[in-house]
Amino acid sequence: MAASAAASSRRGFLRLLAAAAVLAAFGVWAARAAGSSDDRALLSVASLFPGPACPATAEHGPSAAASARMRIVHQHGPCSGRALSTGNYVVTVGLGTPASKYTVVFDTGSDTTWVQCRPCVVKCYRQKEPLFDPAKSSTYANVSCSDPACDDLDSNGCTGGHCLYAVQYGDGSYTVGFFAQDTLTIAHDAIKGFRFGCGEKNSGLFGKTAGLMGLGRGKTSLTVQAYDKYGGAFAYCLPASSSGTGYLDFGPGSAGNNARLTPMLADKGPTFYYVGMTGIRVGGQQVPIAESVFSTAGTLVDSGTVITRLPATAYTALSKAFATGMSASGYKTAPAYSILDTCYDFTGLSDVSLPTVSLVFQGGACLDVDVSGIVYAISQAQVCLAFASNGDDESVAVVGNTQQKTYGVLYDLGRKTVGFAPGSC
């Protein structure tokens, strides 16, 4: 009996060693050695920089066979980002009959979808694909000035009986042109009579993409136009790796059943997805920030903002707590970079142990930021906390796409909720 127990114990120990080897390969064992999963997270420094090749497409998430699923590629990764020179995530859609494919930025912070159009008599920037040519689509039509849809635009005009649109973005980028309708194809689904902007004067930080897909809450957004088909719900997952892929999917079940939900605060404005942030945890500990700091200006979730911006009081407390945790591990500080002022030099290091960061929302929903979203790398010698200050406590807080990585982020107009499903891609 004793010999059998000893043999069983040895077998158990060998299995434990084998499991430890597997865990160490994925950085899990080392992360636990550095502290509990609530306190520290192990980051491979090499993972901060793009891989040389795009991996084979893999299906992610709860409904990999969904008819409205599109692949998302990383902003600077080899799957398309570098060639497009854009700081945002992009998807590919079809437009017209027959459908032509276009790569567009997808943005939850704006409503009107648009692409650059021929003949582009005023101004177009250089894009990767040919310009959309309305003359080659049998289902294209300009929206008339008398159409109620023209009044749904935030800024409109009229020429020759045709409705004109204009969109100005916060960074100074803009697009102006004809408001039109045609068939939009997303994955295997065709949306007939979809209203969009046919841009004749466009300029700004769009890289070499063909335009932008608006996924806001306004009447001209894809979310609202396709409400009858998808129930006003969609979800996306942004990849952790620069050489990885994620997904954009439509429908109420697009983020699965494990999403942590928080109420959507619809009274804050017609376009943005506002939520109620209530606190921040660093290294598993609540950072001392009054809840009123977040409620003063509100918080929105945005796929088109890279770095999370916080009220000055909240950011100062977060930065201090994070710096304390990094100092305890002896990491060397580095100079600030632009709006990022809490930076470190990881030269010569293969792995680093970071304090965990969690964002807490109304209803108890918690976004435990993936280790890939805690810091932002300029170089190995300059890796910074991926949060920044608004400079005051009155400007709205924005949860940016860096902190959303690996989560299925769900937006559901029907249920008036925003959700975060961990480990979705």
From TrEMBL:
Q: Which GO terms describe its biological process?
A: proteolysis
Any keyword Protease?
yes
Molecular function as annotated in GO? aspartic-type endopeptidase activity
Is this entry keyworded Signal?
yes
The alphabetized UniProt keywords are:
Aspartyl protease, Disulfide bond, Hydrolase, Protease, Signal
Q: Which residues form the active site?
A: D107, D302
Task: Outline the extent of the Peptidase A1 domain.
Answer: 89-421
> Record's family?
Belongs to the peptidase A1 family.
By its UniProt entry, which PANTHER family does this protein fall under? ASPARTYL PROTEASES (PTHR13683), OS06G0610800 PROTEIN (PTHR13683:SF902)
Q: What is this protein called?
A: Peptidase A1 domain-containing protein
